[in-house]
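REVIEWER CHECKLIST
Item 1: Sequence provided? yes
Item 2: Single chain? yes
Item 3: Sequence as submitted:
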Amino acid sequence: MPEQPEKKVADVMIPVRNYKTISHNCNVEDAVTLLHKSFYQRGKTGLAHRSLIVCDDYGNPLGMVTFRSILQALEPFFAKTSKFSVPIFWEGLFSERCRAESSKNIKEIMYPFNFIALDVNDTLIKAVHAMIKHKLGTLPVTRNNQLVGMIRANEVFEEAYSVMVDHEFFEEAVTS
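Item 4: Structure as written out by the authors:
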């Protein structure tokens, strides 16, 4: 049986219309609220997203806010420069950081799309490299410099599973 050609980013990306958007004028609390709603959609397993698209006043995408960008905003400034591998934190610091960051504008914590973007014709190995290098589980996908979708580690992993696992052998082993 001949091997199938390798899939491209366009083959596994999620169309941009499936993502929630948020105005660049919103604050971190607004983003957390919308992220929570987007991620915990009942009855839509596999469709939950850990990121939002940040748009300007005209609906043009500027960047994305992710679970990771929210958590990075909560990290105390002194922990970023600490020599210790695991800093010792005080009681109540998490709540304090949440309150302090909630009113910040989301532009301060978003990943701008000019930071990293993949093209629809890029290979999946390029997506893997970009995700690892930039420590992001979701990356924007463009066609002619226009945002058309997002590629997540979930879909890349699913494709790795599809390529690695001999499905006929696996089905036989499970039913035997």
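Item 5: Key structural point noted by reviewer: The chain is about 40% helix and 20% strand.
Item 6: Recommendation: ____
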